[in-house]
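re: ur question from the group chat, yeah i did fold both. here u go
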Amino acid sequence: HVQLVESGGGSVQAGGSLRLSCAASGYTFSNYCLAWFRQAPGKQRDWVATIRGSDTTSYTDSVKGRFTISKDNAESTLYLQMDSLRPEDSGMYYCGVYDAYGGRCSFREDFYDYWGPGTQVTVS
């Protein structure tokens, strides 16, 4: 049974930093596509970043150079380091996972099979 639990959200001033974590269990962590998505109130859930393996990462353009996705296979934990935060980065942040069977990781929400409950990020 796959379980994901996010943590690390909070309120921060513009220009500040936060580090989100996603603790995972119930599957072979290293083989799957893992991603961060975010959702602002009244808007759809948008892709932020993905990682597969140890160094295959992708980012949406608005966070490139500011956010870093990483993971610790031994701890089965996914991270999102967020620097130079902007008010438009505010929203509920979710981690998602699916098995791409060796293919490229998708940025589409409907590809992801499992989700955590989310952690709120507010930038003012």
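okk and heres the other one u asked abt
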Amino acid sequence: QLQLVESGGGLVQPGGSLRLSCAASGFTLDYYDIGWFRQAPGKEREGVVCISTIGGRTNIADSVKGRFTISRDNAKNTVYLQMNNLKPEDTGVYYCAAGALLIRLCVPKDYASWGQGTQVTVSS
């Protein structure tokens, strides 16, 4: 059974940092294109940072460029999202997702496997 489990969310003040983790079971994350998405209340799910397994393609939302980075730890079968200089508009539920040999990155409907999400709240 393919499963993704996110962790690391929480409440943080503006300017603070969080590192989200996405642990996979039942499959090897290194073989898949991985995306981090977020959804704020009343808004559509949006791609934040996405990376391909082949070719090293990345897609980073303009709103998080220079602040968010994605990384993989293949030994732990885990992907991370490092979020720095967080802003209130970064608040939302963050999801990781996996897809196979995607032509486009960060398009939610192209990703087949999703985690349950972790809440990130940026507030003073």
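fwiw on the second one: The two ends are 40 Å apart (CA to CA). The CA atoms of residues 32 and 100 lie 5 Å apart. idk if thats what u expected
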